[in-house]
UniProtKB/TrEMBL annotation:
It comes from Candidatus Enterococcus testudinis. This is ABC3 transporter permease C-terminal domain-containing protein. The chain crosses the membrane at residues 17-34, 54-79, 100-127, 152-176, 197-218, 224-255, 284-305, 485-507, 540-565, 571-594. The keyword Transit peptide does not apply. One of its GO terms (cellular component) is plasma membrane. Belongs to the ABC-4 integral membrane protein family. Keywords: Cell membrane, Membrane, Transmembrane, Transmembrane helix, Transport. It is a multi-pass membrane protein.
Length: 601
């Protein structure tokens, strides 16, 4: 009988449960995908030279579990808000509290466990699809990654089973301890907003100062190190809460007291709706802003490492292609690259020295990387080494030596004029240095020529010539692929949790808003105006944490200046992707909320 009542209750609110069910499926799918990486040490160690990457993914998995727990709590409150009136009715009809508790337990655990199973299966498909997408579109070098992981599946099932077991016990206990009248009217009492203006101003000042101090600590982590991270975390969380609790209340009060704004269309009603449960919204918006920053930050840094690879390769290797003994190279293949820069230096090699014509370097100086206090210069600036400088400066000669093959690097470099060069009794060869318009689009052809030239001139491994840009690019790509992969997964996971928490928090109070919207419709308010009011109200709740979260990210990227040449490069790409996905959740929430409060009887 209990199973039948539970299934009937779910069937009666099928549309609402589909929202909850889909959110839980997505949560478990994301959790499985990330756990499949965190539990695969062979994948992690083979895609990064940093041994700490395993610890980083373990920490990320724990963090994702905490966020998932918070998400389940909000989803769980949504479930209880939908069903508590039904439970109250059962109690009024004489149902015993023990039976109600069993029914609640069955519903909560059944919905959660079924969603977890389906989500885990969906996670396998998503993991395979995302892996293929990243490898093909982002040119990642991912190895030892399998979409199916028995260990990840077991961890996901056990974690969510325990989570819903605890939630089911909590739900059953909480509902049965409440009085029937309390269940019927629990969420219909508005929160009173009585705060002194001076206290609101003080909160705003403290909040802004806390944020500023946190941003300052993040801007110079090389100086503050771990203490800076801890202090920044505390001050930014505190500042976020204080800014929301003071600014939102102040802004709403000002808007409601301004007749030109408040009396226009349904603005006063919208402001009142936002003020109705502002205490709950303040906590939720603060958490949403932090989750927004975590999600956008993870996606931005992950894609930022991808953007860093060609920049770092270019800063270390001035030339796209180095051809030693270039007289043996297929000129047709080189011409097909459409070089923007192509210069050749003559060489003659004896048993103890390599000779160059000094005038050739005076006419076309050799390019070399520029180094500053942060490492290699990232602006594409190169020093120019003339023949006169190379002849006098042994350190400058080391830059030229880097363009030679391994067998030549132990020999003395000598610069002579054209006449003396011609008199040397040795075979003349050439060193050809090339730049192209677009390295990444020409990558395949450049790699083929570089490998062929390296194989023809040395018995050393191909990676030995680190000045060859394709090999530099491959090295950095191998170093950062794991971070890109982690950033993408974490960004999507946190976005899902963030938007779903926000959506469930808004929808959990929708049933109590039906009466207010029904009254407005009865007095003749047009449906178009009501929908406009809904879009504004929900838009504020999505926009406020989004704006503050983006500000957090813009300042937070300063932390990565020690690891990345330019963490702000191509910032519009991750921001654009994230805002588009966030907007989809906003539109979905508006549609679901409108269907609940404007539903025709």
């Amino acid at each position: 009988m209990l199973w039948k009542l539970s299934l009937t209750g779910i069937k009666g609110r099928l549309k609402d449960y589909i929202v909850l069910f889909s959110g839980l499926i997505m949560a478990s799918a994301i959790f499985y995908m990330f756990e499949s990486m965190a539990s695969n040490e062979a994948f992690l160690t083979s895609n990064s030279i940093l041994g700490t990457i395993v610890f980083i993914f373990r920490f990320g998995s724990v963090l994702l579990g905490i966020i998932t727990f918070a998400y389940i709590l909000y989803a769980n409150s949504f479930l209880m808000a939908m069903r508590q009136r039904d439970y109250a009715m059962f109690m009024m009809l004489g149902a015993k509290g023990r039976k109600i508790a069993q029914m609640i337990f069955i519903e909560t655990f059944m919905v959660g466990f079924v969603a977890t199973v389906i989500g885990s299966i969906a996670g396998m498909g998503l993991a395979h699809g995302v892996n293929a997408l990243l490898v093909s579109r982002l040119n990642l070098q991912i190895t030892h990654y399998s979409a199916f992981s028995s260990k990840a599946l077991m961890v996901t099932l056990i974690f969510f089973a325990l989570l819903f077991l605890v939630a089911a016990i909590f739900n059953a206990s909480a509902i049965t301890k409440k009085a029937i009248l309390e269940l019927l009217r629990e969420t219909s009492t508005p929160a009173r907003l009585k705060q002194r203006p001076i206290w609101l101003v003080l909160q705003a000042i403290i909040g802004v100062c806390s944020l500023a101090f946190g941003y300052y600590m993040m801007s110079d982590l090389m100086k503050f190190q771990l203490i800076g991270i801890g202090v920044a975390l505390v001050t930014i969380v505190l500042g976020t809460y204080l800014v929301f609790s003071s600014v939102i209340i102040t802004v709403l009060s000002v808007l409601k007291s301004t007749d030109k704004i408040a009396m226009k269309k349904l603005n006063n009603f919208t402001f009142s709706q936002l003020s109705f449960r502002i205490r709950d919204y303040t906590q939720m918006l603060s958490m949403a802003a932090m989750l927004f920053a975590l999600a956008l930050g993870a996606l931005t840094v992950g894609l930022g490492f991808k953007n860093e690879i060609p920049i770092m390769a270019k800063s270390v290797a001035p030339y796209d292609l180095i051809l030693n003994n270039a007289q043996d190279v297929d000129n047709a293949s080189v011409s097909a690259l459409n070089p923007t820069f192509d210069t050749t230096y003559s060489q003659k090699e004896t048993t103890d020295a390599i000779y160059y014509i000094k005038e050739q370097f005076n006419d076309q100086p050799l390019l070399a990387p520029v180094y500053n206090e942060h490492g290699v210069d990232a602006e594409g600036n190169y020093s120019q080494l003339s023949g006169d400088l190379l002849q006098e400066d042994l350190n400058a000669q080391d830059e030229l030596r880097g363009y030679e093959v391994m067998e030549q690097r132990d020999k003395e470099i000598r610069f002579v004029d054209a006449t003396d060069f011609a008199a040397i009794d040795a075979q003349e060869t050439s060193l050809r240095l090339i730049q192209v318009a677009d390295f990444e689009s020409s990558y395949a052809a450049l790699r083929t020529l570089a490998e062929a030239n390296q194989t023809a001139n040395t018995v050393q491994p191909i990676e030995a010539n680190f000045n060859q840009r394709v090999f530099v690019y491959d090295t950095y790509n191998g170093m950062f692929s794991g971070f890109e992969f982690m950033g993408f997964f974490l960004g999507i996971a946190f976005l899902t949790m963030l938007a779903s928490c926000l959506m469930f928090k808004i929808l959990s109070g929708a049933n109590n808003d039906i009466t207010r919207y029904t009254m407005l419709r009865k007095i003749g308010t047009r449906t178009a105006l009501l929908k406009q009011s809904i879009r504004k109200e929900i838009g504020v709740l999505f926009l406020a944490p989004g704006i503050l979260g983006m500000i957090h990210v813009l300042f937070g990227l300063k932390m990565f200046t020690a690891l990345m040449i330019n963490p702000y490069d191509k910032l519009w790409i991750p921001f654009g992707i994230f805002i588009a996905l966030y907007a989809i959740y906003y539109c979905l929430t508006v549609w679901l909320y409108a269907n609940i409060v404007l539903k025709d009887k």
